[in-house]
Amino acid sequence: MKYIIGLGNPGKNYEKTRHNVGFMVIDELSKRWNIQLNKEKFKGLYGSGIFNGEKVILLKPLTYMNLSGEAIRPLLDYYDINTNDLIVIYDDLDLPTGKIRLRSKGSAGGHNGIKSTIQHLGTENFNRLRIGIDRPTNGMAITNYVLGAFSDDERSAIDHAINQACNACEKWLTVPFLEVMNQFNTSS
User: Fold this and answer.
1) SS3 breakdown of the chain: % helix, strand, coil, rounded to 5?
2) Strand order in the sheet with 54-61
3) Where are the domains of the chain?
4) Treating both helix axes as pointing N-terminal to C-terminal, what angle do 152-172 and 21-33 enclose, rounded to 10 degrees?
């Protein structure tokens, strides 16, 4: 079984913000794989199904970004998950808008959702898929920037990144994460 978690903030007012790109990937996978996100448990919204012969759980934590680990830890405990079977998807200010990067471990890099996840998992060793949102260039505060919507100019790059992230998740269901990293870190 594979567990795919997209980080974001719940609620309509956050729906299309940069910080919610992880939720956007989960929503797209839900559509692609016909997995309804219709259960609430683990402080999150989730759904399960089968794609390419692999059982999959998709989760969107409803704890708000900075407390994401509070939703991820109970999921791991309930299903007795090995972190090799988990991927966390989130936004990254240090990547250009629309770029994706996969890693199998690392620090939080200043991302509060990942900081919470590391704290609650007790390890930095878990698969991640980062989606670039770039940094503000006009002096805007980081908080306002990540909680702002993508501009029309950014939208096509983000749509492409969401598609690539979904493709990477699909690939991960059939091959080791290292192979997915090698393919998508060079092609995105």
Assistant:
1) 45, 25, 35
2) 39-41, 44-51, 54-61, 2-6, 86-92, 127-132, 100-103
3) 2-187
4) 60
Are 56 and 62 a contacting pair, CB within 8 Å? Answer: no
**Which pair of tokens denotes residue 59?**
């989760």
Name residues whose C-beta falls within 8 Å of residue 144's C-beta, 6 or more positions apart in sequence. 136
pTM: 0.95
Kindly indicate whether the domain formed by 2-187 is annotated with CATH number 3.40.50.1470. yes
- pLDDT tens digits along 126-171: 999 999 999 998 888 999 999 999 999 999 999 999 999 999 999 9
Are 48 and 57 spatial neighbours (Cβ–Cβ below 8 Å)?
Answer: yes
* DSSP assignment letter at 151: P
Whether 89 contacts 100, CB under 8 Å: no
Angle between helices 69-79 and 112-121 (to 10 degrees): 30
Residue type, 87: I
Sign of CA dihedral 16, 181, 82, 85: positive
Q: How far apart are the first and last CA of the chain?
A: 26
Catalytic residues: 19
| pLDDT tens-place string over residues 114-129 | 999 999 999 999 999 9
β-pair type (86-92, 127-132)? parallel
- Find out whether 86 and 76 touch, Cβ atoms under 8 Å: yes
25 token code pair = 């990937």
C-alpha atoms less than 13 angstroms from C-alpha of 91 in its C-beta half-sphere:
27
